[in-house]
Specification:
The chain is an alpha+beta fold and about 190 residues long. The chain is built from three helices and nine strands; from the N terminus they run αβββββααββββ. It has helices at about 1-30, 100-125, 130-150, and strands spanning about 60, 65, 75-80, 85, 90-95, 155, 160-165, 170-175, 180-185. Strands 2-8-7-4 form a four-stranded antiparallel sheet, with no helix packed on it. The chain has a three-stranded antiparallel sheet with strand order 3-5-6. Belongs to the membrane fusion protein (MFP) (TC 8.A.1) family.
């Protein structure tokens, strides 16, 4: 019985081996060697992409200044033109200094007169009213000179762009700041 069992086992094993061999040959016959395509692999790189949104609309500046001469006279030198970027305090226009020179001379005369009157008043040589008049003239001349001094140079009140330069009486410059713009229409 052992021999029969061993014989059946060997025959089954042979049939099984032949069956597996024929399947491998059939699969190779149906699928000839497939063409292998070479592929290059790249390493993934992290990048930032700019997102650009375009809208139609109008913008207005948050801050705007019309700058002009505060004293009569002619402009001696203009240091900027339309479209120029300017910084706060930058010299834009130099006015003619002839009136400033006159104001300085009047201030110096009033100052020397005031000092002389002060010493005379302290010694009791002049009445108080005359001293007070001299002091008032001195202070008025000083204020006039300081005002003229500040008005002969026109400076930018803030950082901005010169958007307009009018060369008429008063010679006006218009500035808008470059930092903050507000949209005229509301967009998301």
């Amino acid at each position: 019985m052992n021999k029969i069992f061993l014989s059946i086992f060997l025959i089954t094993l042979i049939i099984f081996a032949l069956g597996c061999a024929s399947r491998t040959e059939n699969s190779k016959a149906n699928n000839p060697d497939e063409e292998i395509i070479p592929v290059k692999a790249l390493k993934a790189v992290k990048k930032n992409y700019d997102i650009i949104l375009e809208y139609a609309g109008t913008v207005e500046p948050y801050q705007k200044a019309r700058i002009g001469a505060q004293m009569s006279g002619t402009i001696e030198k203009i240091y900027v033109k339309e479209g120029d970027f300017v910084k706060e305090g930058q010299l834009l226009v130099q006015m003619n200094t002839q009136q400033l020179t006159q104001a300085k001379i009047q201030f110096e005369l009033a100052e020397s007169d005031y000092k002389r009157m002060k010493s005379l008043f302290e010694t009791g040589s002049i009445p108080e009213q005359q001293f007070e008049r001299s002091k008032a003239n001195y202070e008025a001349a000083k204020a006039s000179y300081e005002l003229m001094l500040s008005n002969t140079q026109i400076r930018a009140p803030f950082d901005g762009i010169v958007t307009e330069r009018l060369m008429n009486e008063g010679e006006v410059f218009t500035l808008v700041p470059i930092r903050w713009w507000k949209p005229w229409d509301n967009y998301p």
